[in-house]
Structure formats: structure tokens, C-alpha cells
Amino acid sequence: MKAKVVSDLFEKALVQMGINDKYDFVFETPKNPEHGDLSTNIAMRLAKPMKKKPADIAQEIIDQIKGKSDLIEDLTIAGPGFINIKLSPKVYANAIKELYKKGENICRQDFGNKLKVNVEYVSVNPTGLLHLGHGRNACLGDTIANLYEWTGHDVTREYYFNNAGNQMNNLAQSVYARYMQKIEGEDFPFPENGYHGEYIKEIAEEVHQQHGEALKENTPENINLMRKAGEEWSFKRIKATLARMSINQDVFYNEDSLYKEGKIKNLLALFEEKGLSYKKDDATWLRFSEMGLSDDRVIVKSTGEPTYRLPDIAYHREKFERGFELLIDVFGADHIATIPDVMAAVKYLGYDTERVRPIIHQFVTLMENGEQVKMSKRTGKSYTLDDLLDEVGSDVVRFFLLMRSFNTHLEFDLDLAREQSEKNPVFYLQYANARISSVIENAIEAGAKLDDENAKFELLTHPSELNLINEAMNVDRIIKSATQKCEPQVLADYLRALASEFHKFYHDCRIIGVDADLQTARLALVRTIKHIIKNSLTILGLSSPERM
RNA sequence: GGUCCCGUAGCUCAGGUGGAUAGAGCACAAGUUUCCUAAACUUGGUGCCGCAGGUUCGAAUCCUGCCGGGAUCACCA
To answer: Smallest Cα–Cα separation from A146: which of A240, A247, A253?
Structure first.
């Protein structure tokens, strides 16, 4: 935003100097405020092609620009050849006015051009409850979807699940065993690789309540009932847990429909037709070795069942066929190995892999008193996402899961999360919003009028005001960057910086009761800040309480 | 062994396309409120940026090799 103000001037200056080629140079905000509001490395970039000293080039540029714009107060040469630019306060006044006009639309952008985006996340099979890692996946996916929505994309939130196959059999047999143990005692054998979670007992209990002892025989029909019961029980709770974090997906895509609708068959036929698959040892193999990967892999087992790769590939193809132009897949680090296979196959099928964006997030560990927590103290069972939501609430869970870059291992500090005080970073943000609400309320009571597009923003000259405006000016860049990087952490970090500038401003500058014009300008400023904070919190999926 | 992620302050982590004196939160210490919410603000300091080379005016950032931690490498999903 700031750079826009000066870049034209610089480009004109270069033309004046007879430099018409494009060179790579940047404007940036110096870390050290003594270096001005903006600085550019242009002179250093030109030193080599022009065969002159950076300082001399810088001086030439400065001579060209100086005095030509009332937006620039001063230009100086510093360090190895930087040009430091001191902007006139007018730049900030213009900027905050522009932001103020956006009102509640302030975090919205439209660079998405209605691109059809599919964000797939959570996607756990209905065999149990959600845990912390799933929580990270869910919050990431949901927030990425929010970001894309706010930037003008046409977003579909999707959940892909599989309620067939080995794991579901396993679930069914586990429920059956618990059911039988209930009737015949603890000696009834439990399947070796069964699901040991306590929740299986709950499911068995429900089955028992509903059917009594009628399902004692290990028949396919009865096992199928167990499976259904387990699936429904799990899905109900998964959805409920997600809803507690305000996560509601649009499409629940069942892997099974790929079979029912012949998508798997079609794909197999296509692979065969293209000579990409072959039979060996009764299995069907895909020639990944011809797609740039090292080894061929089985896609249909000798038993006739496909491996996970086949439906995964078919599913991606299906998403493209449904018209999506960008596929974002949110996976945990344990899925890392499947991605190259899918990508290679998708590419070979003629789709643009640039349009597939796998987001692999690292694991989460829950820490308490410096030690890893695996079991819930209260229940003695393994720690679920619901347990965490019970303890600290959705806002804290979401923020903690989002405040770190997805590709670093995340330590969830339970002690800090439990802290209902200023130590908790979530409250720091929400408090800024609540403070502004309160000020606005008081201002209205005192008879201040709020809707003033003609507010005299040029009166905002206190360093704390300028710093706050300066931070607010970054909002578009941040939202865009967070979206393109699929990195909510960028926004979370920005929000903290913005809240910090706000709190400093609040401390230094009174709003109500100062000179009328200044009061109007400051009210307009804090309302703008409030919109940014509130919208950012919304994008992150957090609430913005008006009072705290 | 191959592939991916990570290694930055006591701890947890940031570090837009390479830039000037590497930052924040927490923890620790001291202070600020007759005045719009003190869940706030102010002050205090610590870094072989894992190691070693390379690229260049300039590297925490890019390249190569190594070391350490995590994940993953099925006719399991």
C-alpha cells in the first residue's frame, strides 16, 4: 500500500535517467524506524549494470524525485546504498481514509475471480473419535476455506470418507467382541488388531440396549449391524465435535460412490488402454516408474480389492471432473507417502498438478507441566478433541492450533491454554475488540456521531496513531499472503501485531473528550481497526465478544 | 537406506520475493490506574540463527555436504 505511493515516482525517475530496462528492486518497511517509512535497494541493484557506485546512483535518483511529490517528506542515502524514504503524514491520512471507507468489508478481496476451489479436510473414516491431530487438520482446512471465501473464491468444503474395507470390518468385530463380553463375560476373545478404545464399549452398550441378546451369532448380518452402529455412532460424534468448533462441511463424499458410479472401473480401463498398468502375480500394477517415480505399485490386489491408491487417484480425477479448478488437500504428516503417487497419476491423466495443493501439517503433542499428555486425567481415557474443547473452549483450541505454521511440529501448551487471563494470547486479541466496543458505546452515549466520511484523518499524527495506521495498512497484503500460502498462522501473527499497536495507541491517546475533530478521527480509526480485528477473528473461526 | 518436515533467546515460536543493529509471546525483575475495560501499558537481556563449505556488494533466508529430532517408505488406509 505504501509502496504504491512511491513506486511510480521512482519509475519515472529511472526513465528520466535513461534507464528503461526493468530491474528487480523492492520497497520495504525498514525494521529500524530511524531508517524512515520505506526503503529501497534500487541503487544497489543498479550498481552492476550501470557500473557506478550505489551511493552515486542513489543521489541521482534522489535528485530526480526530490520536491516532486507532497507525499514524500525526505529522501536520504544510508548504509551500503539504501534510499530511505520519509513519507508525509498525508500518506497515512489517505490510507486510513481508504480503509475506513471499506467498513465491514475490510478484509474482503476479490482476486479469486470466483475460481472454484475444493478444500478437503478432516476426512477421517468413521471408526472412532477425533483427536488433537484431527483438530489441527480441521481448523487448518476450515480456516483455509474461510480465507479463500473471503478473497473471492467459490469454495466447497469437503469431507472424504470410507465406510467399507478392513478398518470398518475391524471396527465391527471390535464392537461385536465388546458386545459378547457384555453378555458372556470378559473372557470372550477380543480381536488382535481390534480398536481398544473405551468408546467401543459404549457402542456395544447401545447395540445391546437396542437389540438385547439377539445378535450373539457371528453372522455377516449381525456383524453388518455392528458396523452400521459403529459408523453411525462415530459419525454423529465427529460431526458434533466439528460443529463445536463451527466447522460445517458442504459435501461428505463417500469413497463408495466411486465404485457405484463406475469411476474406479473407468479409471482402470483408462490405465490399461494407455498401457500404464499391467498384471503380475494376479495383481494389477501401475507403472509409476514411467511417471517419474522409482517403483511400480499395486493398485488392485490379487484378491481383487483395490489398494488405497486407486480410489485416491479416482477421487482426485472426480474432483476435477466436478469442475473444481483448485484442489486443496489437507493431510497429516502420516499421509506424506501417498502424495507423490497421486500427483504422478493425476498428471499422467492430463490434469494440471499445479492445481492440486497438498497441505501436509505436522503432528500435535499436548503438553502439560512440560510433559506429554496422552490420557485425560478426568476420564483416564485417551485424550480426545472433545476433552480439549471441554477444558478450554473452541476459541482457545482453534487459536492454539492455528497460531503455528502448519509445517512445524506443534506443541499445545495445556497450561497456557487453560489460563483465563492476560497470559492467554487469544484474550489479548479479543480484548482489543471488546475495548473498542466499549469506547464506541461510550462515545455514542456522549453524543458523538459516528458516520463521518469527512473525518479529518490528517489530525492523526501521534506516533502511536501512525504506527497503528501503518500496521492496518498491511491488512490486504497479509490476507492475500495467508490465502496463497494456505497459512492461517500468518493472519494469527498479524492480528497479534495489530492488537498490540492498538493497545499502545489506546494507552497513549484518549479518544472521548478530546477536541471534537480529533475525537471524530480517532473514532473512525478505532472503528476501522475493529473491523479488521473482528473479520480476522471470524476468518480464524473465533468469536469476537463485545464485552470481556 | 530413500523421501518429506523441523533445528533461531531458558521455553514455545515469527522471521513478505536475500538487505542495515535477528524479533514476539511466555517465564523472570521493577514500575504505571483520581481519566474511554490494568485480560492493558512501560522498562530491563540473553543468541557460534545445528555444523562446515559455496553463491554475492550483502545469507537465518539460496545451493551442496554433514549432525540431531520427528514423519513416512505394504498386495494397511
So the answer is: A247
